[in-house]
Amino acid sequence: MSQDRWWKRPGKIHSAIPEVAEQLRKGEINRREFLRTATLLGMSASAAYVLAGKMTGMHIVPRALAAGHARRGGNLRVSMTVMEFTDPAIYDWSEKGNLARQFIDPMVQISPDNIATPHLAESWEVSEDLKTWTFNLRQGIKWSNGDDFNADDIIFNVTRWIDPKTGSSNEGRFSAVQEPPEKIDDHTVRFNLARAELALPESMGDYPALIVNRRFSDDGGDLSKNPVGTGAFEMVENIVGERAVMRRRAGKHWTGDVYLDEITFIDLGGDANAELNAFISGQIDVNYQTTVQQVPAIREIPSLDVHSTATAQTGLLRMRLSEEPWGNAKLRQAVLACVDHQQLVDIAYQGLGLAGEDHHVSPVHPAYAELPRSKQDIGRARRLLAEAGYPNGIELEVQCVDSPAWEQATTLALVEMLRPAGITANVNVLPGKTYWDKWDTWPISFTSWTHRALGTQVLNLAYRSGVTWNECAYSNPEFDRLLDEAGGIVDVNKRRGVMAQLEKILQDDAILVQPFWRNVFTTSTQKVKNYRVQPALEMLFNQVWLDA
Prior knowledge:
Blueprint: H1 16-26, H2 31-40, H3 45-56, E1 75-79, H4 94-100, E2 108-110, E3 116-118, E4 121-126, E5 132-137, H5 151-161, H6 170-173, E6 182-185, E7 188-192, H7 200-203, E8 233-239, E9 243-248, E10 262-266, H8 272-280, E11 286-287, H9 295-299, E12 304-319, H10 329-337, H11 341-349, E13 353-355, H12 378-387, E14 394-401, H13 405-418, E15 423-430, H14 432-437, E16 444-449, H15 455-462, H16 477-487, H17 492-509, E17 512-513, E18 516-525, E19 528-529, E20 545-546
Parallel strand pairs: 1-10, 1-11, 14-15
Antiparallel strand pairs: 2-3, 4-5, 5-7, 6-7, 8-9, 9-10, 12-16, 12-17, 12-18, 13-18, 19-20
Helix pairs in contact: 1-2, 1-3, 2-3, 10-12, 11-13, 16-17
């Protein structure tokens, strides 16, 4: 351990941080796992990078901005679906969050390095038992309506999030938060949790946790009609399905220098070829996401840059246990026995991903435990199907959305794998609105899920009993108990042991086929500077600029 006893310096440091640093020094955890844990426990990102360097003997610093070369002005034109974005608490699409986050902010921001960094919250501290979290809010921030940002804003938002009447996915995301935070003073709030939960700051960075003004409900509860915010931009135009225009707020922003004058989101209708033509003709500067089919062509165009990152983004063929015939475990197991995961990566995603293990915890997640992947075994699938009561086979209808193309391709490849076992599945390809209006009620369907930084976050959102986004209608008391336990373990290696049990339960209960983990891609022109792809495709433009 370092001789300068850094943990005795001024400021409250959680007692687990020295132990986690020592694990890094011994090679028992990797740098990513150390940075994630240290920042969650309240250490600043800059201090965590410095300490990581000391423990490993390597000089490691976060990526710095070349602000001295930044150019002011210009309109960044972004190709992205322009959706309605009324109430952040009930957002169900990352694109809605990307529109709103240009003029409202989260408490915590997840960086392109996938690290939780302070935002509206300047810092936080956590008790030894991980049940009491104190967030220190930034002072001097003004809402665009002239209000001072303060603790009342946080209390208002959290109260709405945890109220079942709101219908927010935050009910699962913050399942340990059973009561609104306590107001210590105008810029300090304290969360007293029902159980230990390490992921609280990470969850504060997710798009349904964007913070609205405390008068939000009084002003109609529609952010698109009353866009009051703390962000660097203000919304000046919003036409769903066409465009949204954001203009930089006057004066110095609390995040520092902001270079762009405007951001214009342009909806090209989800046509990848139209988007490519728009890049070539100079109509757009950056896009939300590049399809895997377009990557080879874009890499051949000198004026365009492709950005990519490994993520926990995925898609699931999930079976809803409350709907017939999916309460039948043998039938679900028969489906899984038909699947060749690597073949799905190759067929549907050009090999640009990692094969899944049918438990929705990714190799990029700290505490991920690698489990044996089920192997395709058509003979076993037929036997399971007969044991399920379908000796002569079964015919099903699978729902999937028409765009993006990889979702259709994966679904079609999956159902072809089912046929040799006697499972005939017809694919019903639906337009987005039709599909997503019922996405969590279809008996069997293919659903895409975005990246979350921790495996426990995903499991809380999607598989905890009774939560809003539990599309499988899954309920397993032992799973819930172990999930509670995992959320309270700081030591990533100890947490991995519990995560292995959670992953195995999901595999054994066979509620989903998780084909692969996606690498994601975005494209920008070479005049777009200081832009980095974020794993959840959150668009962070405050310090992006355009070269002439």
